[in-house]
Amino acid sequence: MVDIRRYEGFAEIPIEHYDGLLIDLDDTLYSYERCHQIGLDAAFEACGMGLDASAFAKRYRAARDAVTARLEGQGACRSRLFAFQAMAEAHGLRQPYVAALELDQAYWNAFLAAMRPDPEAREFLTRCRRQGLSVAVVTDMTAEVQIRKLRQLGLVDLVEHLVTSEETGREKPHRSMFETALRKLDIRAERAVMVGDQLVKDIEGAAALGIHGALVVLKDIAA
């Protein structure tokens, strides 16, 4: 029987009975929202398109939603570059793809600089390393961005494998995300546990393959 439990912190998660760990990245290993807002502010400063900050944010959100709907289920649906390109095209900018790249770079440079790893998550991954558990991050996003995040968080040495929706062509909770992670870790589903912050996408998606689940709620991290 698959075991699914909710934990208030990483320290409570037992790992003694597993051979490998699957873990989400965004809002599991760090807090996303603050970094996103800092990134969006930086993009606005780079090229506000004559809008005020509120209007810029609204147009960005609409563009992101449109890209997500058009490319639903693919890693590219998370692309900030495509959202900024849609904004630049709608605004009638010349060479909108160039403006999109500048906005995308400003966003991610500021986003990454603001990232702070959750201390409990880092200690949890360290505990997994001491116990000999191999770790695979399973995440909906483009691979390059998620690699940069792991490097910025200083967690690369604690993570053996990365599985992104860009790589598999599907987003969580699609089974291919978890099957790919199991294959890379070379472990059976019943000997793995998936840790994440979303019940349906992370925990129930993994449970459908027989992977145990640990739902955690990340505490906000101050700057």
Automatic annotation (TrEMBL):
Pfam families: Hydrolase (PF00702)
NCBIfam families given in the database record: HAD-SF-IA-v1, HAD-SF-IA-v3
Top-level taxon of the source organism: Bacteria
Organism: Aureimonas endophytica
InterPro entries documented for this protein: HAD-like_sf (IPR036412), HAD-SF_hydro_IA (IPR006439), HAD_sf (IPR023214), Pyrimidine_5'-ntase_YjjG (IPR052550)
Protein name: Haloacid dehalogenase
